[in-house]
Amino acid sequence: MRLLHTADWHLGKVLKGIDRTPEIGEALKDLLEIVRKERVDLVVVAGDLFDRPQVSAEAEALAVEFFLRLKELHVPALVIAGNHDPKERLEALSPLLALAGAAVRGRLLLREEGGVVEVQGVRAALLPFVSERVLVKRLWQEAEERHRTYAEAMRRVLANLESPLMLAHFALEGVRPGGGEFFFHLAGSYAVPPSVLPLGARYLALGHIHRQGQVSEAPLAWYAGSLVQLDFGEGEEAKRGALLVELPPNGPPRVHPIPGRWGKPLRTFRLKKEELDGRFSELERFPGYLRVVVEGRLSPAEKERFYRALPHLLALEALGEPREEVGGEAPELGLVEAYGRYLEERNRKEEALLARFGEVLREVEREALEVGA
């Protein structure tokens, strides 16, 4: 069997006012061409098709169109929800996507509930992202057992779902991010130790980390990485793209990385104030989106001049000043980021508390969407 492993599309992603959906749509077209040329038998999508609970009609249409085009190529697909995905919406779309040959799981199902399917003669487990509270409550009903950890719960779930092919969306302990991930779903209680991975699996197709790379040899496990570069900062040079995986009847799988050259590149330039004019032509020629961090203060007039001269400049930050964003406006921090900054200002580094705050916030948002639906 030849399968295409992809993940972390993030359709609907908006970066500082720029909708990245058209760039991601072009990447999906290229994936379809790879499926055709490489005679792929199965496509697996390991979570985060979408970037947020509510996305544009264009973003949703691109996802549906991708699976319809796969059906025309007679190639089935397996899909799981990630931490960014609207799980209820994916579940609602699953009957439609099933007509296109895609098996979709938005919520956790154990083996006896349909969490393992057979496709192209291979048993495959589908493990979408599950929050800590939901997972522990799902496995241990009694209140006195609720002290169990996320890692313990994941060990039980992975053992239950153990199959030759496994799709999952979580962060393995010690893995470097690729830029744009929710950090409170990467560390602390959400970091899953590699020791919980089931040795009976031949290949684990992982999503959640935007940096492409192998993270385990036994069992063989890879993150495909995001299709396009999603944010500035750490991971700007990370590998990303998709993976072509050969699963022979016998012997180890063979993984062939497909380097991602999709979407516009993002780059941070760190310059001294006196270097700005001398490096202007380099900034002007950069083919992607820019973030410029300047050592020294800039007047409002100077900032306005650079924003006008460089339409692809999305952030201009002067060290020692309050951080500013596109057009010199104050940054629009999310509640989690704002709470994180509040803790930092008080010299409190409490990742577990921040993670719990973020999870509660997301659950409240999901419930609000359900009420308004």
Automatic annotation (TrEMBL):
Question: Which keywords accompany this UniProt record?
Answer: DNA recombination, DNA replication, Endonuclease, Exonuclease, Hydrolase, Nuclease
* Any single GO BP term: DNA replication
Domain Calcineurin-like phosphoesterase span(s) in chain numbering: 1-142
**Annotated GO MF terms:** 3'-5' exonuclease activity; endonuclease activity
InterPro entries (alphabetical): Calcineurin-like_PHP, DNA_Repair-Maintenance_Comp, Metallo-depent_PP-like, Mre11_N, SbcD
Is 4Fe-4S among the key words of this record? no
Superkingdom classification of source: Bacteria
The text of the family note is: Belongs to the SbcD family.
Subunit structure of this chain's protein: Heterodimer of SbcC and SbcD.
Function per UniProt? SbcCD cleaves DNA hairpin structures. These structures can inhibit DNA replication and are intermediates in certain DNA recombination reactions. The complex acts as a 3'->5' double strand exonuclease that can open hairpins. It also has a 5' single-strand endonuclease activity.
From the Swiss-Prot or TrEMBL record, give the protein name. Answer: Nuclease SbcCD subunit D
Q: What is the scientific name of the source organism?
A: Thermus arciformis
Organism taxonomic ancestry: Bacteria, Thermotogati, Deinococcota, Deinococci, Thermales
